[in-house]
Amino acid sequence: MSNEIITRENDRIKRFFSSLDRMLDKIEAALTGCKPTLNGERFLSDSEVSDRLKVSRRTLQDYRTTGKIPYIQLGGKVLYRESDIQKLLEENYRKGWQ
Fold it and tell me: What pLDDT does residue 71 have?
């Protein structure tokens, strides 16, 4: 066994900390896309839904007003069930002609 003092400048220590940094980056990336669920259901904000549907937030407001899209309003916050959005898309799917 050597009596070497291990410091931050040691290559093994540098590789170890580099490995930890990569793991932390991967964990942060995984958590960024993760939304908590309530009873197994994910809820989306109006900006998330408008991004997914490729419509403006004003168009989304029209959909709510005309009853085309279900939503939940808590105070000034509007939320959409992810399952409702998926169901809406599936119900309005039209096959192409072939």
Answer: 94
